[in-house]
């Protein structure tokens, strides 16, 4: 949703966000809503300026959001307060699920289909009765399938809509399942788990439900206070269920506002530098899925119904944009050039694999993982193992200077002389020093101009990539190796301008926009894209951003004068199709009339036979509300969606209250205790989300539930003045002066217990590390009564480091690496720690024992490691994988050392390729997507055995 | 002495001329004419010195506030909120309002720094040298760590030997070329961004 839509809400719940302090200008619209009479609610562990400006502040213990939201769902269902007409028409509430489904209320916290050994679910048990339903998002396809689900969705046919029971009596219809599932989330249970007083909780429920319906809409706003949990995806899902039950989607003032933290964090997801996606939500092919050819991939991943049925057009157009004239139907448009995944290659596994020697070189563009990633010491250890590191930033970050000022060096664990990493620190341009586009949190793409001349060696990342690409293209120009063909085939003809030879950002944006290949005419819409290679498009969702050579809509600056007659469509470009609100068909009733005059957005214009409104309709423009698919004709794509199915990216066009596929940890959100919690789960026997991605190892240990050594709940956050782990604001004189040094917020009761006075030094400790910081005693944090006992929560800004003007210890030293099952996002909001008065003495700092340098193992030793893996088939938390990987990489290192700098012989190249393939398989089994696959590892073992037999 | 007396008289006279309160009692607005002083009449906005102004987007959070950046001879002299923007209507938060400090911070790097293996210090190196060296080691590491096919015969065409992690303040065009060249060209799969974490 757009930020300005918040001004039209009647109730706004801010949860998992301190919006007034961290998105202050976005908070303007909350203030405007309040001035119009809206009720503002803040649900948060800390009382902040957001709480101060809200009508109701509901305190909750960190990590109990699903208990709170589940309580709201129960309240809505118990008192029948849902928007029945909207819900019956636009959601899957009446869908009937297979009899094999069992919920956590039956299975002590698990859903049916859990495979303990692999730590993952088989989604077969969650499907609609009679017919499996594919995942709605292409993004999820690559990640989701297990061997069973591949068979399940093997034949993606749809002869009929999913079975429904409109009476809602069927015990396996979504409505009945939902009621049973949330039955135990009573106001009393909510109070017991979250610590939020029952009356406060009920006040929130009452405000939300009385401000939703035909004439009124409510919004939720969240930030990383929701996503940074191992159940982050499910917290947001719980909110989706509430907003679907209350009819608050696709309507003015209704929706879920994701308050993202960086200026182009949405853009970095759309045009992703993410391992599992190609631009605009297309799946990266995976070696362990039926993606061996383009034909296989399109067959396996094309959803039969809904908008994603157009997937082949977008995928082929992307290949055409990347490989140009080299991409032909005969070579499957160079599909084989795309690298394939063997596992989870996201940032957390990469960090661990870097420690094990898998990663040899690393590029860091404007990120500062030593401060921003969890388990900072482990990150430093990984960096020290790299052969080379390229850091591009405007400042000398902690990541760039770890080798001389890092914690490992300070503690004597390493000396700079011991660190062999070759480091390049390249100065990078700030925004006003380059052209380009940024995508804001509401999908609004805005162009920024180059106004300033970069000083010295400052260059844009665009410059870096184009020039590095040019040099590498030259280095590989004469190669005849098959593996170097992708580099040679890649289209890379970018215009350079001026003294500094800066590339033209508009040319790149136009490549993203797409064109018809023969005449290079820009496309005005993704509806022009084809799957035959006649069109090229670098990011289908951005098509239309530069609809013609002289039109850059991202640079358009024509806001609406008064009111919102066009939703500011003359200002910037919102994907898709410059549409401001997604799923806005839901703002009209099934017959196509606005639900109310107060909340009108788009409607059916019967006279002209098309959808009209104050926004670009998110629907087939001429599809009348009365259209019904003719199932006897096996309709495909949009033809299979009725004129009353607004959620066109979902296969069946309905909001999914129950999610049959696409999620790895359950079709409905469940309250699990955080990985590290002061109590046992009061609701289920199962303590934590069973699908959580955990990788314990020395230096990354986790605290057991209710571990008396670590009794306090620890949470992290940032400050209005200091922005994230980036050094930027710590190096800006006036913001650094406003927040000059690190502190930890401690509730007065705990301070008294510990004898800590205001601004005393305290030491915070976890099994990962210890830091010292000054205490700020404040009643913004209050003790909670949880499950009958007092639980203290402390909080610390994570924005500090040893560089810049404003300094302090790094809070993320305390945190551990583990991730959300769906996204591998790390958890920073709800862990446990200890606090003691005083400072870190020499003895207190407990340096890690020095790891002896890894001696190159013999081939037989490595083979024994692999054999042990195959014999034990350990789960992913075992250390055997790490040991085998370290041995393999050390073995590779020794081989490379032998060849030295001389060009290797062809035989050696082939040997190295084979050795690397073994590493790829071990990595994929260690960090699998879904359950580990053992057959590839058996084959890898054979290959390794034959490799060393040649010696 | 008379000179001193005249100086005091001038100062009193000056104070009386500049004292806002009598003018406010006389009905002048404290926001306009009553707020003027001898000094303020001679002050000029620094924007007048600008030879260029352009539209930028705030580099911090994802709200997407528009900024006007004023420059003189290619150097920034002032940054303020763009009043036309439907998002911020001219306002900025403390970070956004401090953007000039980001652009002109004395801590900004202006030259390539290089740290050789086992070295205890940074060395300044030419940009061209660094680019060539980075290209060479990228090629070497890719070639050494490339996997064409898995032992089961399936093609992967990838390298796990090089990773790239980015911040979410990069332009869409920059991200696009990173994914295109590193992924579609070199075969890197470990390409990640702050957007995940």
TrEMBL record, chain A:
Coiled-coil ranges per UniProt: none
Location in or out of the cell: Cell envelope
Keyword entries, A-Z: 4Fe-4S, Iron, Iron-sulfur, Metal-binding, Oxidoreductase
Pfam families: Molybdopterin, Molydop_binding
GO BP annotations listed: anaerobic respiration
Cofactors that this protein relies on: [4Fe-4S] cluster
Similarity comment: Belongs to the prokaryotic molybdopterin-containing oxidoreductase family.
Domain Molybdopterin dinucleotide-binding: 714-785
Example of a GO cellular component annotation carried by this entry: cell envelope
Protein name per Swiss-Prot or TrEMBL: Formate dehydrogenase
Domain of life: Bacteria
Domain Molybdopterin oxidoreductase positions: 5-402
GO MF annotation list: 4 iron, 4 sulfur cluster binding; electron transfer activity; molybdenum ion binding; molybdopterin cofactor binding; oxidoreductase activity
Organism lineage: Bacteria, Pseudomonadati, Pseudomonadota, Alphaproteobacteria, Acetobacterales
Main location: other
The keyword Protein transport is annotated on this UniProt entry: no
Region (Disordered): 127-167
């Amino acid at each position: 949703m757009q930020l300005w839509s918040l001004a039209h809400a009647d109730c706004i719940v801010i949860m998992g966000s301190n919006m007034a302090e961290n998105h202050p200008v976005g908070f303007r619209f909350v203030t405007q809503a309040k001035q119009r009479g809206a009720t503002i609610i803040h649900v948060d562990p800390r009382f902040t300026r957001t709480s101060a400006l809200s009508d109701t502040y509901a305190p909750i213990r960190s990590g109990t959001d699903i208990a709170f939201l589940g309580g709201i769902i129960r309240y809505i269902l118990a008192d029948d307060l849902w928007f029945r007409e909207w819900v019956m028409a636009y959601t899957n509430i009446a869908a009937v699920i297979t009899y094999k489904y069992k919920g956590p209320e039956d299975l002590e916290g698990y859903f049916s289909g859990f495979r303990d050994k692999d730590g993952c679910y088989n989604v077969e048990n969650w499907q609609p009765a009679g017919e499996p339903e594919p995942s709605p998002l292409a993004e999820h396809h690559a990640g989701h399938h297990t061997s069973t689900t591949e068979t399940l969705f093997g034949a993606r046919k749809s002869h009929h809509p999913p079975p429904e029971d409109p009476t809602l009596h069927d015990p396996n219809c979504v409505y009945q399942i939902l009621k049973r599932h949330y039955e135990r989330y009573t106001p009393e249970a909510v109070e017991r788990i979250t610590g939020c007083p029952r009356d406060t909780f009920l006040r929130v429920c009452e405000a939300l439900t009385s401000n939703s319906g035909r004439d009124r809409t409510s919004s939720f706003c969240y930030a990383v206070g929701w996503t940074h949990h191992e159940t982050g995806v499910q917290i947001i899902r719980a909110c989706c269920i509430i907003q679907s039950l209350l009819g608050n989607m696709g309507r003015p003032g209704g929706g879920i506002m994701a308050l993202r933290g960086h200026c182009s964090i949405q853009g970095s997801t759309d045009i992703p530098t993410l391992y599992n996606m190609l631009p605009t939500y297309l799946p990266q092919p995976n070696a362990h899925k039926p993606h061996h050819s383009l034909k296989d991939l399109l067959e396996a991943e094309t959803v039969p119904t809904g908008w994603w049925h157009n997937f082949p057009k977008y995928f082929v157009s992307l290949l055409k944009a990347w490989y140009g004239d080299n991409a032909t139907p005969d070579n499957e448009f160079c599909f084989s050039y795309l690298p394939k995944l063997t596992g989870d290659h996201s940032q957390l596994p990469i960090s661990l694999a870097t420690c094990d020697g898998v990663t040899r070189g690393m590029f860091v563009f404007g990120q500062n993982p030593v401060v921003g990633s969890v388990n900072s010491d482990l990150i430093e250890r990984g960096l020290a193992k790299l052969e080379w590191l390229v850091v591009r930033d405007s400042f000398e970050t902690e990541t760039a200077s770890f080798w001389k000022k890092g914690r490992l060096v300070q503690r004597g664990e390493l000396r700079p002389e011991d660190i062999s990493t070759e480091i390049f620190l390249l100065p990078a341009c700030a925004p006003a020093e380059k052209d380009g586009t940024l995508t804001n949190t509401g999908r609004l793409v805005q162009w920024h101009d180059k106004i300033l001349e970069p000083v010295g060696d400052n260059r844009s990342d665009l410059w870096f990539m184009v020039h590095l690409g040019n040099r590498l293209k030259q280095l590989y120009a004469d190669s005849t190796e098959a593996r170097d063909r992708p580099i040679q085939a890649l289209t890379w003809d970018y215009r350079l301008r001026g003294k500094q030879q800066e590339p033209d950002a508009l040319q790149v944006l136009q490549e993203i926009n797409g064109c018809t290949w023969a005449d290079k005419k820009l496309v005005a819409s993704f509806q022009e894209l084809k799957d035959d290679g006649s069109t090229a498009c670098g990011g289908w969702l951005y098509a239309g951003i530069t609809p013609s050579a002289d039109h850059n809509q991202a640079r358009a600056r024509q806001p609406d004068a008064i009111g919102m007659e066009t939703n500011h469509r003359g200002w910037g470009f919102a994907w898709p199709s410059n549409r401001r609100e997604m799923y806005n068909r839901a703002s009209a009733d099934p017959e196509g009339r606005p639900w109310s005059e107060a909340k009108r957005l788009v409607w059916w214009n019967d006279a002209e036979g098309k959808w009209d409104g104050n926004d670009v309709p998110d629907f087939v423009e001429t599809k009348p509300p009365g259209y019904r698919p003719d199932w006897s004709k096996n309709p495909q794509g949009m033809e299979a969606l009725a004129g009353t199915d607004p959620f066109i990216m979902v296969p069946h066009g309905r909001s999914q209250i129950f999610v049959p596929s696409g999620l790895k940890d359950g079709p409905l959100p469940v309250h699990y205790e955080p990985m590290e919690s002061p109590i046992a789960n009061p609701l289920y026997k199962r303590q934590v989300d069973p699908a959580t991605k955990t990788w314990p190892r020395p230096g990354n240990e986790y605290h057991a539930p209710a571990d008396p050594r670590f009794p306090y709940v620890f949470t992290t956050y940032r400050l209005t003045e200091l922005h994230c782990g980036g050094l930027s604001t710590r190096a800006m004189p006036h913001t650094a002066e406003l927040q000059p040094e690190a502190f930890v917020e401690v509730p007065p009761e705990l301070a008294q217990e510990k004898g800590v006075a205001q601004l005393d030094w305290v030491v915070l400790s976890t099994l990962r590390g210890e830091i010292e910081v000054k205490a700020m005693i404040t009643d913004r944090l209050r003790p909670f009564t949880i499950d009958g006992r007092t639980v203290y929560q402390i909080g610390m800004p994570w924005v500090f480091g040893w560089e810049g003007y404003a300094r302090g210890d790094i809070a993320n030293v305390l945190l551990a690496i583990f991730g959300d099952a769906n996204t591998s996002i790390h958890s920073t909001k709800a862990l446990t720690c200890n606090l003691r008065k005083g400072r870190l003495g020499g003895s207190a700092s407990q340096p890690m024992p020095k790891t002896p340098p890894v001696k190159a193992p013999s081939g037989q030793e490595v083979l024994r490691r692999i054999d042990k893996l195959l014999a034990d088939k350990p789960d992913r938390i075992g250390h055997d994988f790490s040991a085998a990987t370290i041995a393999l990489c050390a073995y590779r290192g020794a081989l490379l050392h032998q060849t030295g700098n001389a060009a290797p012989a062809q035989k050696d190249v082939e040997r190295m390729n084979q050795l690397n393939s073994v590493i790829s398989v071990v990595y994929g089994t260690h960090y699998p997507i879904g359950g580990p696959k053992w057959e590839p590892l058996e084959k890898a073992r054979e290959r390794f055995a034959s490799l060393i037999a040649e010696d | 002495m008379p000179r001193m007396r005249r100086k005091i008289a001038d100062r009193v006279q000056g104070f009386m001329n500049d004292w806002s309160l009598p003018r406010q009692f006389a009905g002048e607005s404290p926001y306009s004419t009553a707020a003027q002083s001898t000094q303020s009449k001679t002050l000029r906005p620094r924007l007048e010195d600008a030879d260029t102004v352009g539209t930028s987007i705030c580099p911090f959070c994802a709200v997407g506030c528009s900024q006007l950046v004023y420059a003189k001879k290619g150097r920034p002299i002032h940054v303020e909120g763009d009043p036309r923007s439907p998002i911020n209507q001219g306002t900025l938060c403390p970070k956004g309002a401090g953007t000039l400090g980001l652009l002109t911070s004395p801590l900004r790097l202006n030259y390539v720094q290089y740290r050789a293996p086992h070295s205890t210090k940074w060395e300044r190196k030419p940009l061209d040298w660094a680019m060539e060296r980075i290209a060479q080691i990228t090629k070497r590491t890719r070639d050494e760590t490339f996997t064409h096919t898995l032992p089961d015969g399936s093609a992967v065409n990838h390298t796990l030997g090089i990773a790239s992690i980015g911040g979410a303040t990069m332009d869409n065009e920059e991200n696009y070329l990173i994914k295109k060249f590193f992924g579609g060209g070199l075969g890197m799969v470990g390409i990640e961004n702050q957007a995940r974490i």
